[in-house]
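Working notes for the structural subgroup meeting. M.R. asked for a predicted model of this chain before we commit to crystallization trials. I am recording the input and output together here so anyone reviewing the notebook later can reproduce the run.

Input as submitted:
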Amino acid sequence: MNTQYKLERKALKFSLLGTVFMAILGFVFAWITDSTAILLDGTFSSVNILLAFTTIIVSRKVTQKESNRFQFRLYQLEPLLNVFKSLFYLVVIILAISTAAIVIYNGGRPIRYNLGVFYALIAMSGCFAMSYLVKWYDQKESTPLLAIEYKGWFIDALLSGAVLITFLIGYLFRDVVASKYLNYIDPIVSISIGLSMIPLNIKMLKNNALDLLYAAPDQTLQNQISSIIRRVTTKYNCLNYHIRLAKTGRITLLYIGVLQEHDLDIHRESIRNELITAFNEKNLSINLVMESFSCLSYPIDRLNSTRKLILKP
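Returned structure, recorded in token form:
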């Protein structure tokens, strides 16, 4: 098995164990302290348990070889899973905001701040540690699944940090501020956390939905690929080239039509091999389809537009 996939699955298994621990911790302390902020934290972790199992399954599927049924493999499973993750997170956030709003309408809720501080310290430390661990694996072997897993842990860490602030305020001012005002701190912080997380999840949803639609990759990657192609085709005195790009999950699909004055068959494999080598050196996961044309066989509409680019008056 490829080293990249071994590291990915190892990181995902660590993530699953951490998620189970955080979910149990969150629900136990939510029950003890009667806190909606902790309940939100625990709910995120419980949703992540299901998603972590699914992520491991998807990781296995996308690394399988092509089959008669799926001849281009299953790379699109990654963005599909990440779309569902984003939707899950948005549903949980909306439910948490609604619950907190009801608590405020009903006059707030008294909670046990001393235990909350203890919980938040453990949860925040654990989530930041897990986000760092997943990020470390992602930096070694970057994959979309680890990138989204890191974001999930980072969101959990921010949630726990906000919970810590909530309980610290309540604990420090418990004898100074009237208790009826302290009862509103927990739901207000829950709403603030939820609202701050919505833009991030919408961005995750948008990016992965575009991957599902085989949209072109970001402009930085397009420029990087175009630069490599330009260098290689110039070396073989090609007149011009025509490219089309699409990205889905961890793979970028590249079509390139290369134009030369004479028949290119003698150079086609050399150009293809040099392109693949250059892409691998840059750690770019690219599926390459290449065609070559001479001026006589190139489609006339493309040839006319190409001549405008390469012929000087």
